[in-house]
């Protein structure tokens, strides 16, 4: 059974701070990792994908992947109240022909002014 | 931009009714998915399809069926709605790639079964 573990939170950070969201996964064969953001009452939207060990930066967002430790994280710099949402981590092993990602249950982030 | 649309944002049905939820994507994606999302349980896969007329069961297919007659359209059918099927239903589509594929979600249908 493939599993993704995320702290449900809520994680509360002040505006302007760095928010750090973490995720561990069970499948060593996983190749693809995704972070989705979901606002309350809305559907998830992709914000970052990462496939290689190391860091990937996109604006205020940085995804970090460590396959040896089976760990992926998302850093949000200069957090804004508009970043308040639930963040879902997902992984996928496409080499096995699977079309299905495995999602975590999400971490709720609250950025307070 | 990928666009995934769902037939209804909100739907109220009675126990025992047959319910159709439709999903359409405009990016020629091979793969389409139906999830339900409930508080504390996260996203749970009901069915997915990797090609026209092809379907595979997900984690919770009981009480549901699907239809994919055209590449762009994937329908979820509740044969006889029950109160425990009250939930948010999310459709997603994705292309196929060797490194895994990102999912694009529709806006969701909040179904209430009375």
Sequence-ordered SSE layout with sheet pairings:
The complex is a heterodimer of chains A (about 110) and B (about 110).
Chain A: E1 4-5, E2 11-14, E3 19-25, E4 32-38, E5 45-50, E6 54-58, E7 61-66, E8 71-76, E9 85-92, E10 102-103, E11 107-112
Parallel strand pairs in A: 2-11
Antiparallel strand pairs in A: 1-3, 3-8, 4-5, 4-9, 6-7, 7-8, 9-10, 9-11
Chain B: E1 4-6, E2 10-13, E3 19-25, E4 31-38, E5 42-49, E6 56-57, E7 64-70, E8 73-78, E9 87-94, E10 104-105, E11 109-113
Parallel strand pairs in B: 2-11
Antiparallel strand pairs in B: 1-3, 3-8, 4-5, 4-9, 5-6, 7-8, 9-10, 9-11
Helix-strand category of chain A: mainly beta
Radius of gyration of chain A: 14 Å
List the secondary-structure elements of chain B in sequence, H or E: EEEEEEEEEEE
- Overall average pLDDT of chain B: 93
Number of DSSP strands of chain A?
11
Number of extended strands of chain B: 11
SSE arrangement of chain A, N to C: EEEEEEEEEEE
For the termini of chain B, the CA-CA separation is 37 Å
Task: Count every helix of chain B, treating DSSP H or I runs of 4 or more residues as helices.
Answer: 0
Q: Helical percent range of chain A?
A: under 10%
Largest sheet of chain B: 7 strands, mixed
**Overall body shape of chain A:** globular
Largest interface: A-B, 24 and 25 residues
Give the low-pLDDT segments of chain B: none
Whole-Å distance between the termini of chain A? 40 Å
Q: Low-confidence spans of chain A: pLDDT under 50, at least 5 residues?
A: none
Helix content of chain B: under 10%
The overall average pLDDT of chain A, rounded, is 90
Instruction: State the helix count of chain A.
Output: 0
Structural class by SSE content of chain B:
mainly beta
The quaternary state of the protein chains shown equals heterodimer
């Amino acid at each position: 059974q493939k599993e993704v573990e995320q702290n449900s939170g809520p994680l509360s950070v002040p505006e302007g701070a760095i928010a750090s969201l973490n995720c561990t996964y069970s499948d060593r064969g996983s190749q693809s990792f995704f972070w989705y953001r979901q606002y309350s009452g809305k559907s998830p939207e992709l914000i970052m994908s990462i496939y290689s060990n190391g860091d990937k930066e996109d604006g205020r967002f940085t995804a970090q992947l460590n396959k040896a430790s089976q760990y992926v994280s998302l850093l949000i710099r200069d957090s804004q109240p508009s970043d308040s949402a639930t963040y879902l981590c997902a992984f996928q092993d496409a080499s096995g022909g699977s079309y299905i990602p495995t999602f975590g249950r999400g971490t709720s982030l609250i950025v307070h002014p | 931009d990928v666009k995934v649309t769902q037939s209804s944002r909100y739907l109220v049905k009675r126990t025992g009714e047959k319910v159709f939820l439709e999903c359409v994507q405009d990016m020629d994606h091979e793969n389409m998915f139906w999830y339900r999302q409930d508080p504390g349980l996260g996203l749970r896969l009901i069915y997915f399809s990797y090609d026209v007329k092809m379907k595979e069961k997900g984690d919770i297919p009981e009480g549901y069926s699907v239809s994919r007659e055209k590449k762009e359209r994937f329908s979820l059918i509740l044969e006889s709605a029950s109160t425990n099927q009250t939930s948010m239903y999310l459709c997603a589509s994705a292309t196929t790639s060797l490194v895994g594929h990102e999912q694009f979600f529709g806006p969701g249908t909040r179904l209430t079964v009375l």
